[in-house]
Design brief:
This protein is α/β, with parallel strands linked by helices. It is 19% helix and 33% strand.
Length: 332
Amino acid sequence: DSILVVFETDQPTSGAVRLELPRRRAAFLSSPGTHHEVRLSGLRPGTRYRYQVAVRALSAAPERMDRQDQKPRPDLAAEVRSEAAEFTTAPQSGPFTFLVYGDNRDRDADHAAVIKAMVPEAPDFIIQTGDMVGNASEDVLWRRYFQAAGPVLRAAPMYPALGNHELRGDSEARHFFRFFTYPGKNPRSRTVYYSFRYSNSLFIALDGNNPADPAQFDFLSQTLARAGKDPAVRHIFVFVHQPPYAVGAYCGSSREQRHFVPLFGRYPQLRAVFGGHEHAYQHLERGGVRYFITGGGGAPLYPRSQSCDREDDLALRLFRAEHHYLRVQVDG
């Protein structure tokens, strides 16, 4: 019954999100500043809405002539509006489609090509498996990420996993915490894990940068245990940046195999574990659990390694060094 619209401006502004409702229009205001998080509430589940973001600079000045070139300067008090976009609220039941991708890093053209292919899918939401930028400390790289991903992000919520490059140059993940809001957000903890329900499915995000974190292990075990007892949860999906099993440049994470994998095998509702980190598509299976690596979001592609552990090699079903995304359809 609600959705969060997050946006930033170069200078302090007052902001509003204008929403078209069946018989009227509503405006939801944000606090003045450069970072804006606006919650649109009172919505109907599983409903398509049209919206637009509008901002107005706080340091307003009348239009005047520049002393050097005598050209008019813009009126900072003028309202600036985004293009109109649409989103769909989460349904309480019924079928849905989500996309999974990651590891675009700073290859803008390849990333944009993947996004261009994703847009016509009109997904209900997107899972991002991490490594959105090469160096998280550089604001210009984040600008380039959002410029490329904007066409799909303005129409679908995105749930990110924390990649290792989100910590490169920014060990406290300040930029990640600044740009992304997710369920149970806790900026005081650098380990990023959370869960959310969508229709008849449960989604769990884990942090492969710190798989031995005791609090994360407790969260995972308790969340899975509750879901296992809930007949309304038909499917469980897990996503993490570093995959437990892989046969590319890095191979699988032995620490995740010790801390996460034993829990995965206990729950037959756990349909898939999505990972990134390796720039290729990989389908692996181990202990009755399917593992998909979707690291083809635009970064340079990796070949298959011939020196991974036997556990990784035994798990492999298909390897393709291709730029790609995954489409997952849940129906019943």
